[in-house]
């Protein structure tokens, strides 16, 4: 199968029912997406599939053939972070950090679809991404900061 991940096209020989999460982590050695629950309940594995946030634990290799996948590693660079990544740094969102790549990917997708969400829309879009450290007020503050930086 052919799959483009973070701008690089890969030819892969994997089982069609392999979850995208394991394809990324085990086959391509991309470790930003995390295994949290395996049942689409926590959001730690969130990536973008053709620009939309999806849970990589619930999508199979055959479903993504020919698609464009973006992980946290491909969202921005250390020299040019995505506005959401920079806002996460500025707001010091992360505590343990385990959920943060999924949180950032969900937030970036939200802002791509809705550049000016209300707090209720932010809360609704982010509600499926769990944070054991309860950084939710800082997550919302970082999203608000990203909105301001993109609008400036």
Automatic annotation (TrEMBL):
Annotated ranges, domain 2Fe-2S ferredoxin-type: 1-75
Molecular functions per Gene Ontology: 2 iron, 2 sulfur cluster binding; metal ion binding; oxidoreductase activity
InterPro entries per record: 2Fe-2S-bd (IPR002888), 2Fe-2S-bd_dom_sf (IPR036884), 2Fe-2S_ferredoxin-like_sf (IPR036010), 2Fe-2S_ferredoxin-type (IPR001041), Beta-grasp_dom_sf (IPR012675), Diverse_Oxidoreductases (IPR051452)
Classification via PROSITE patterns: 2FE2S_FER_2
SUPFAM superfamilies, sorted: 2Fe-2S ferredoxin-like, CO dehydrogenase ISP C-domain like
Superkingdom of origin organism: Bacteria
Enzyme Commission code(s) on record: 1.17.2.1
Keywords per UniProt: 2Fe-2S, Iron, Iron-sulfur, Metal-binding, Oxidoreductase
Family matches, as PANTHER family: BLR6218 PROTEIN (PTHR44379:SF2), OXIDOREDUCTASE WITH IRON-SULFUR SUBUNIT (PTHR44379)
Protein name: Nicotinate dehydrogenase subunit A
Organism per entry: Jannaschia donghaensis
């Amino acid at each position: 199968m052919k799959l483009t991940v973070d701008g690089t096209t890969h030819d892969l020989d994997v089982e069609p029912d392999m979850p995208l999460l394991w394809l990324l982590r085990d086959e391509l050695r991309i470790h930003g997406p995390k295994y949290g629950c395996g049942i689409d309940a926590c959001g730690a594995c969130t990536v973008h599939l053709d620009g939309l946030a999806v849970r990589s634990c619930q999508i199979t290799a055959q479903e993504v053939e020919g698609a464009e996948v973006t992980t946290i590693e491909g969202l921005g660079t250390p020299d040019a972070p995505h506005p959401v990544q920079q806002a996460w740094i500025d707001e010091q969102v992360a505590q343990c950090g385990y959920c943060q790549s999924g949180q950032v990917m969900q937030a970036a997708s939200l802002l791509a679809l809705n550049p000016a969400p209300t707090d209720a829309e932010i809360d609704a879009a982010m509600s499926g991404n769990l944070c054991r450290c309860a950084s939710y007020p800082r997550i919302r503050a970082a999203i608000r900061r990203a909105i301001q930086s993109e609008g400036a």
